[in-house]
Specification:
Helix content: under 10%
Number of helices: 3
Strand order of the largest sheet: 1-7-6-5-4
Number of strands: 38
């Protein structure tokens, strides 16, 4: 199951000797994970800390010297030419050792202490049956945890590279179209795995908790409730549409230690553009859900768009952000929605606080009710909602309605960042509109009581962009959103949408990558470009930062398919690029 690189094998494979490593590295305790901010030299979480800030306290690289940033070293993490995914992972670094995965969930430990090369220590191949993307591993104790696209989880000993346990986490009640793209997160003595593709493959998504020591399943929560569960009554159809309800979990949950809760956002209800098939609010799709981290019991939820129409769902990463207004501390869970709003919820009182537009290109609603946070057009007394830009129907309304933002460009896996220096959140994505027209007939029998079975999609239902609607160009946008004022303080536009996440640093910088392979650093106040380097390959991953022996580094994974907007070239090998002064 694993390939351990001996010295001879390493020399043969890459011309690099394996560095001598300590027999036993220190354990990554839950306490260390809670206090990850106190170890700025390391990057112990996917987003650096449980708060999902993607913020580094390192400032050696700053606005005054970032123009001197250069490639320190680069190494390959491998790629199968049959891969049909994008490299969206984020490396973890502990005490000079990097743990990184590629789209096939292959895990690699690399010694980066020299600052001039990445020396492989071991590789682990879970032999995943499928690939789409893999967002990286998690650390806890002396193990590294990885999930696979074919819905397994592994605990791998971080010193030996050997499997400690393997578990198939597929939900037995759902169709065989389940997939996992987010990496795991670890809290206390549990690791969590999610099903992510329900909104596209016709199944119910879920999050599951496994015992970190044994891999035993502790609990599972389905994002679409079944009969007898709270919220099931919001599926008002007569053909069990809830069985293929969707609600995918694409992002990493955020853990709030104060309330011992997991906050996460869910994807769209299935089928995406056909609300007539699934009348009702469709809980808990397009929602923020809050679960007790120990038991998996729901503590609270907030649905952003009931009976959502346009795949403008809300699986984006949440962030724990605190600030003071009028002498009062506000403790929030905040996120950028795909519908164009920045939402803030009170994580102590479990209540909606405010929702502000960060996009100036919103036409599906006139705005949000300041008291409820719902779209002002929402009518709780009807089963089929009528918003301002309903999708068209071929044979009824061939032109369709142009709706904005474009569901395929708004923030999704592009992880945001938060800087306490500027009290601002940053996100990079795209900005355009779309128009969809669906056939009128819906073959309900093809669901077989709600179960799609093999394959995905719905027989008798298709969607197409209507040729009669002229759409604006697909542009890239990066926003700096001030969470205290609820205003956009800076914004830039690029020729192609961003697919990469953000990194903010205490050096007054934000880092990102563009689809043409350009890695860039910008002024955190103005978003003005200060430095760039082109890797010549598609970029969908987010940068991170670490230090060793007092020297700061910026690292990012490059590679992926060329099918993303603005990308050029063919499928490329995946690499980790590391920069330093």
């Amino acid at each position: 199951m694993q390939l351990k690189l001996s010295l001879v094998a390493a020399l043969a494979a890459g011309g690099m000797a394996v560095a001598a490593v300590p027999a036993n590295a220190q354990n990554v305790t839950f306490q260390r994970l809670l206090n990850a901010d106190s170890e700025p030299q390391n990057w112990l979480h996917y987003s650096q800390n449980y708060k999902n800030w993607r913020y580094s306290n390192l400032s050696q690289i700053n606005k005054n010297n970032v123009q001197n940033l250069k490639m320190a070293f680069l190494f390959s993490i491998g790629r199968d030419t049959k891969a049909d995914g994008a490299e969206e992972g984020v490396p973890l670094v502990e005490d000079g050792f990097m743990y990184v995965t590629n789209t096939w969930s292959k895990l690699m430990k690399v010694d980066v202490r020299s600052g001039t090369r990445g020396q492989p220590v071991w590789r682990f191949d879970p032999k995943s049956e499928f690939t789409r993307s893999n967002k990286g591993p998690a650390l806890l104790g002396d193990n590294v945890y990885i999930t696979t696209n074919d819905v397994r989880m592994f605990a791998v000993n971080k010193n030996t590279g050997e499997a400690v346990w393997e578990k198939n986490v597929v939900s037995p009640t759902e169709s065989n179209t389940q997939r996992t793209t987010p990496g795991p997160i670890a809290v206390k003595n549990m690791v969590y795995q999610q099903e992510s593709t329900g909104g596209q493959s016709g199944t119910r998504s879920w999050i599951a908790a496994l015992d970190a020591t044994t891999g035993d399943l502790k609990w599972r929560f389905h994002t679409i409730p079944g009969p007898g569960e709270p919220g099931h009554e919001t599926w008002k159809d007569d053909h069990q549409a809830w069985r293929t309800g969707g609600g995918g979990l694409w992002g990493h949950p955020v853990y709030d230690a104060d309330t011992n809760t997991l906050w996460m956002g869910t994807g769209d209800a299935f089928p995406s553009f056909i609300p007539e098939y699934r009348p009702g609010d469709n809980l808990y799709a397009a929602s923020t859900i809050v679960l007790d981290a120990d038991s998996g019991k729901m503590r609270w939820f907030f649905q952003e768009v009931p009976n959502e129409h346009w795949d403008q769902d809300t699986p984006n990463n949440r962030m724990l952000i605190d600030y003071t207004v009028g002498g009062r501390q506000v403790k929030t869970v905040s996120n950028f929605t795909r519908g164009g709003f920045f939402m803030q919820h009170d994580r102590a009182a479990f209540a909606f606080i405010r929702g502000d537009a960060y996009s100036n290109n919103i036409n599906w609603t006139k705005g949000l009710d300041p008291k409820t946070g719902k779209p002002v057009e929402y009518n709780p007394n009807v089963a089929l909602q009528t918003y301002l830009a309903p999708v068209g129907r071929i044979g009824v309304d061939n032109s369709g309605k142009m709706f904005c933002p474009n569901y395929n460009l708004a923030p999704l896996w592009q992880t945001p960042a938060y800087s306490p220096q500027t009290t601002s959140a940053y996100v990079a994505a795209g900005d355009s509109c779309n128009a969809i027209a669906n056939v009128v007939s819906i073959n309900k029998e093809s669901f077989n009581g709600g179960l799609v079975g093999k394959g995905s999609g719905v027989a008798g239902v298709t969607k197409a962009t209507t040729a009669s609607v002229t759409l604006p160009p697909q542009l890239g946008k990066m926003w700096r959103f001030n969470v205290v004022t609820g205003k956009v303080d800076a914004m830039i536009t690029t020729n192609a949408p961003f697919r990469s996440g953000m990194l903010a640093t205490s050096g007054g910088l934000v880092f990102n990558a563009e689809n043409d392979g350009t890695v860039s650093a910008r002024d955190a106040e103005t978003l003005a470009p200060l430095w760039s380097f082109n890797l010549g390959m598609p970029m969908s991953a987010a940068p991170m930062s670490y230090s060793y022996n007092g020297k700061q580094y910026i690292a990012i994974i490059g590679g992926g398919h060329a099918g993303v907007s603005g990308a050029s070239g063919q499928v490329s090998s995946a690499v980790v690029a590391v920069f330093s002064l």
